Amino acid sequence: MNPFSYARASDVADAIRQIAADPAARFVAGGTNLIDLMKYDVEHPARLIDISQLPLKSIEETPEGGLLIGAMVPNSDLAYHPLIEQRYPLLASAILAGASQQLRNMASTGGNLLQRTRCFYFYDVVTPCNKRKPGSGCSAISGVNRINAILGTSDACIATHPSDMCVALAALDARVHVAGPGGARTVAFPDFHRLPGATPERDTNLESDEIITGIEIPAKGFNANYSYLKIRDRLSYAFALVSVAAALELEGDTIKEARLALGGVAHKPWRDPAAEAAMRGQHAGESAFTKAADLLLQGAQGYGHNNFKIGLARRAIVRTLSQAARGMPQSQSVKKIR
Amino acid sequence: MASYIGTATSRVDGRAKVTGEAKYAGEFNLPGLVYGQVVGSTIAKGRISLVDTSEAMRVRGVIDILTHQHRPEMADSDDAYKDDTAPEKGSPYRPLYDDRILFCGQPVAVVLAEDWETARFAASLVRVEYQREAHVTDLHAQRGEAFAVEKPEKPRGNAEKAFAAADVRHEAEYFIPTEHHNPMELFGSTAMWEDDKLTVYDKTQGVQNVQRYLCGVFDLKPDAVRVLSPYMGGGFGAALRPQYQVVLAVLAARAVQRPVRVVLTREQMYALGYRPATIERLALGARSGGTLDAIMHEAIAVTSQFEEFSRNDTGWADLLYTSPNTKFVHKLARLDVPTSSDMRAPGAATGVYALECAMDELAIALKIDPVQLRLQCYSDRDQNTGLPYSSKQLRECYGQGSAAFGWEKRNPEPRSMRDDHELVGWGMATGVWEALQMPAAVRIVLTANGHAEVATAASDIGTGTYTIMAQVAADMLGLPIDNISVKLGDSSLPQSPLEGGSWIAASVCNAIATTAHAVRKELLRLAKRMKDSPLAGAAADDVTLADGKIVSTKDPGQAASIASVMQHGKVERIEREESNTFTEDKLHARNAHSAVFAEVKVDEELGVIRVTRVVNAVAAGRILNLKTARSQIMGSVVWGIGMALHEETLYDHHFGRVMNANIAEYHVPVNADVHDIEVIFVDEPDETINPLGIKGLGEIGIVGVAAAIANAVYHATGKRVRDLPITLDKVIQFE
After folding, report:
1. For position B2, what pLDDT does the model report?
2. φ, ψ for residue B733, nearest 5 deg
């Protein structure tokens, strides 16, 4: 860990001014990932700008019937907020599937989007990693890659995005509110995280002088038929091998609308409108779910240790959609899979 | 007065631990303390061609940087580096000794600075260049090169022939990956020279072992070195051998003439010892009725290129099962890694895992209940030596364990039991470990105010040694437990063995008994000198200490208070130091046993495994403290769950590096993975093994647990997974 200076931002404008003035600075909110990365010598910010006190801690209803969640709302406050629990239980469930209570107490909503991959080679500064050191090569492709991606990979990188919350946000059609020197803008969730391509060092389309101010989720919460299922190598406190966010709007047994997103399989939450469209108008049952799974997993490719993820994901998708259809969402405290 | 032995007494050091009063090796803040940060090698094999410390030295607050080219003198013979548990064969690793790289993460420099943060930053600026050489870290790639080592279990009969002729045969290979200990407390040492005297606070399971070791490495006289380790946050065998940070702290303290603390990072602890990856080959030949004719067990385990560490993986069958023909082979494969080491139940956790899975597979082939097969093959003697056991209540373990578990309701057919989406499996296994005792001495100082101090050099690694010693001393001296203070973890205290092998309880508690006897004799001598002494005619064996009094066992009315005896005798204190009456018992086999029963529920589609119940019925002689004993067995069972389902040190063999060197990615069980654990202590009086009938509980609790779970997973799913950990992708072939 390198020496660094520390400053606190008084408001969003001040935060943007400070970050624009110092390219070697980084924002810190909960610090649950950045501080680890500094300890591992992966990140070397010369200056930390503490944004944890910014007035972005409210959860407000939007005129369109949705919610605007402040970027500094702690993950645990968000998960247990009555409006989230009632209207967006998929989001609450996904948050509670991640990390530990202690980490969720510290982690911010905005920071959750900016978590970096858990790829072993990204954390080990001795080994080549294109994400950490562009052009050095990807060690994971022929290395220990049980936890790595099967979708949207490139020759340069097979890292996954580690967030659970983002998988639910992707399924819920969230928009990311961003502010920068040029003003504010919103980014649709699928456009926020990137695929690695030839530039895996860039996780997102957020500019280096921009800050996330909030997450907007539209009115539709799918609170009757949803589930978040996370499959991992122990029953809690581990990153997903595969996770599935499923949300259905049903008319009787017929699917009116479907949302489906995967975690643990790609450089971003993995969603495909075609897979969702294929379920529309279908009977909510195994045949439609299997077809959706096949569509969503089209092009999936294993790298050795993680080959099993393809078949696991297929079964997990079907199971999660079935949980949603049955109105029996996966509990995050009772680990028996429903 | 209540007897303390056998009760559920709370930890006497519990308050000190939760209040932070208990200090650990890395917490002694000496004036002028210097902080050392280790720089580890990034390659697995080769030579250091350059260590460039110039940039790091420019950081303000850096005092010095030690390397193999820049350090105080240290010994140059292998003997100087051999500690009590060093493998017999080989050259122990010498930190910062020369330019040779023997394993990845090996220390190549120590940065010394005014504060820890500075040391840590500067360490990242030390630039090291290497001449790389080809390395090998994969056991499977090296198994062809494995060589056999001598082990005590000799072959009996002709196992190959008997196996070939057997009615029913089972032959299979099992695999246990490398596992690391991961004690909560990081390895750390604080060293201070005062004139020519050295004081070291170290995380170690043996302060006197470290003392002797440092005397060798730095050519010192024993009275010039004092090593202290009053508390430990877990050892599990990792702290049996002196670790390299203690040498670095002492070297550095000598170099900078100030006290130095060196604490390893979690990542660096993956470059210490480990449970070696082991391939276990079992071949069992049986008669159709369910008796064994042949047992063959071969193990191939990892060791380093420079030492031959091996434990007894094979041969456990000789303790458990009768068979006229047996053959045991232990092999080692050399890899470019640190030397493997003891880790809870070394040899047994791995070897018995394979044996007990093989027995399960044999029971299935024979269509016999797994418990029944074990009872049919039950041995009342150590088959290898022919000796009877001092005690062996394993039959009772099977009986009480299966009753508590409800084993008789088991449908033997795999995939026959289910709960909703989950397949339910019930599996069982046997556990066995040694019940050893080592020479140990205890000093008791009884003062006239009715307080006693009980001291020995042993470490309490967190298991409750302070507490059981206080209990035994309180009973032996007839004092309330609050009047007993126990001193441990100081090399200047009476001689004690290493805290390992499950032998500390038996060793030190029997030494308390002999020392208390000497105190009692002295009290009786003084009592007899009292005017009209009620004990005038009593012999030493006719008195006991109880309720603060010395009492005639023949006539409890005849008694004198300890306080009055000492007052009359005009003595303020009675001090005695005695050893246990340890003698090698050549007439009996001495072992602890267990029967483990496990229930798993496996999601039929997704392969997710939950261990919903474990019953561990243990026969281990006298149980000194029901509370700490239960805790110890529960902890072992949790570790067994980890061994079965989670634990694996992942190497990238191309780089020769551990890739999951942290406890986020090296998985151990978390609360969600642990459900009901029932611990049963089977009554096992044993007057033969030692005067107090103690066998020890450190290891027995983990032995058999992974096998019981693996057998349960088979019963649930019909899928036999032989290589650990049993992850969901091994249970289900995902298409």
Report:
1. 56
2. -80, 95
Q: May I ask the CATH class of domain B278-436+586-731? A: alpha beta
Backbone angles phi, psi at A8, to 5 degrees: -110, 140
* φ/ψ of residue B92, rounded to 5: -55, 150
Nearest to A144 among B606, B652, B662 (CB): B652
Kindly give the pairing relationship between strand A59-61 and strand A47-50: unpaired
Asked if A126 and B124 come within 8 Å (Cβ–Cβ), the reply is: no
The CATH number of residue A18's host domain is: 3.30.43.10
Q: How many other CB atoms are there within 10 angstroms of residue B447's CB atom?
A: 17
Q: Which of A120, A236, A290, A314 would best serve as a mutation to test chain B binding (most B beta carbons within 10 A)?
A: A120
- Average pLDDT of chain B is 97
Asked whether this complex has an ipTM greater than 0.90, the answer is yes
Distance separating alpha carbons of residues A180 and B233, to the nearest angstrom: 48
Q: Using the 3D structure, point to which of A52, A73, A90 is the last residue of a domain.
A: A52
The half-sphere exposure of A83 on its side-chain side, counting CA atoms within 13 A, is 15
From chain B, the residues in CB contact with A315 under 8 A are 605-606, 734
Which of B499, B522, B578, B699 is the catalytic position?
A: B699
**What residues in A contact B673, CB-CB < 8 Å?**
234-236
**pLDDT surpassing 80 at residue B1:** no
> Residue A332: closest CA among chain B residues belongs to which residue?
B672
The answer to whether residue A309 is domain-embedded is yes
- B278-436+586-731 and B18-134+184-234+239-271 share a CATH fold: no
Binned at pLDDT 50, 70 and 90, residue B152 comes out as confident
Domain boundaries, chain B: 18-134+184-234+239-271, 278-436+586-731, 438-579
- The CATH architecture annotation of domain B18-134+184-234+239-271 reads Alpha-Beta Complex (3.90)
Mean pLDDT of successive 10-residue stretches along chain A, which has 338 residues: 95 97 96 96 97 97 98 98 98 98 97 98 97 98 98 98 98 98 97 98 97 98 98 97 98 98 98 98 98 98 98 98 98 97
Region B438-579: CATH code: 3.30.365.10
Is B606 an interface residue toward A (CB < 8 Å)? yes
- % residues pLDDT > 70 (chain B): 100
CA atoms within 13 A on the CB side of B135: 27
- Of B124, B608, B610, Cβ closest to residue A41: B124
Q: Compare all CA atoms of chain B with the CA of A144 and give the residue at the minimum distance.
A: B652
Amino acid present at A245: A
Nearest to A143 among B120, B654, B671 (CB): B654
Which of B120, B422, B660 faces A336 most closely, judged by CB atoms?
A: B422
Instruction: Count each helix (H run) and each strand (E run) in chain B, helices first.
Output: 17, 29
Q: Does B657 touch chain A (CB under 8 A)?
A: yes
Q: Do A336 and B655 touch (CB under 8 A)?
A: no
Chain A hits for B420, CB-CB cut-off 8 Å, are: 336
Mutate to test the interface with B, among A118, A148, A150, A233 (most CBs of B within 10 A): A233
* Spatial CB neighbours of B333, under 8 Å, sequence gap ≥ 6: B139, B142, B143, B145, B146, B300, B301, B302, B303
**Is B699 an active-site residue?**
yes
Buried b (16+ CB within 10 A) or exposed e, B551-571: bbeeeeebbbebebbbeebeb
Measured between CA atoms, the residue of chain B closest to residue A320 is B606
Flag whether pLDDT at B483 surpasses 50: yes
Please report whether residue A103 resides in a domain.
Answer: no
pLDDT level of residue B641 (50, 70, 90 thresholds): very high
Domain of A291, in residue numbers: 226-326
Could you tell me if B667 lies within 8 Å of chain A, comparing CB atoms? yes
